[in-house]
Specification:
single chain, Growth Hormone, Chain: A, 2 strands, 1% strand
Length: 408
Amino acid sequence: MTDTSIKAAPLNRYQVLITVIIVLLLFTIVVDYMLLSALSAILLPALNLSTEQFGALASAYAFSAAISSFISTGFADRFNRKSYLLFFYFGFILGIVCCALAPSYWVLLAARIVTGIFGGIVGSTCFAIIADLFLLNQRGRVMGFVQMSYAAGQIGGLPLAMYAANEFTWQAPYWIIAFLGLGIGLALFYFMQPLKEHLKQVQNQMPWQKVLQVIHKKNHWNVFLNNALLVIGDVLILTFDAAYMANNLKLSLEKIPLVYVVTGGVTLLFGPIFGRLSDKLGKLKVFTIGTVLSIGAIAMYSNLQEATFAMIIIIHALLFIGINARMVSSTALGMEVPKLKDRGAFMAFDSSVQQLASALAAAFAGLVLYTTADGSLSRYWLLGLIVISFMLTTLFFMQRIQSTIHKA
């Protein structure tokens, strides 16, 4: 299949239903992933945690998800995708319940590891399902709606969770996620049809042979490296974003949440728009537009000496519009690279690479920046240059991905 300007195929009722279920399912994953950092001010005194202990809690999910996703590479294409997703999603809900019941740091740490082991595979399995159920000229719209789960988590899910934590206990948000997830899991069980077509093509391979098969293909690495750079760039610029706004740009702590609400709203609005555009204009064109917007926003933002609240909002809106365009278009195009029999393994390994990249990028950002005597962050401009270089590199990989698909 090529990725030129072609008429986008309409979605049927079943495809719309599955899209809604996947968006809701990923919403719970997103809220859980963002929740721990948002609860830091409550958790530190509640469990008498040191900053090192909280850092371990924050990274436990990403590292355990990376490991489980890597292991899943050898098994993901051996099962009905519906059953595989149900198993790991209900395992994720079990981990959430363990978080809600955790009485101490060590129990919570174990619960976060359990949540990462199961939750880390949910997203890659959802993407494999999308690749199976939707044509290339439909996936842009679907990924646009999937991006709405991230925006909805930022706009509605996280504020609701924080309200519950402030009004009741820090465990309350986890109970809310667990009960919501249970309902979504039951909807998945009742409405999704089994997905077994890929099983007809699976060869008798040992799990380690499957892993080697996925890793060995050079065209797969175009996607793996591209997605790793996408994640690294986003994490690098956003990890210390709040601290940069507060300490360098002197934005009050009360206004910082409003920045993220606005950027979440932008993502909610533009996700479907970029999804449709990528189906009509082509994924690479939309990705290039998003890259230009992102680079311009980062170049301005990382070199600011002072800024008004309106200026910060505008720059963040442009940045998130660009990030959204890049993520929607690259994911939709990358799904076309693996063969049907390799999609589950491909998505699992890709998820493992992204989780590991996310964990390492946050640590790297801390090495690049340092805090001055007045509390501001120094060398943010350097961080911006590094991110821009990564973004330019992704254009090269996207060109190669599209070229690979054209030759197929």
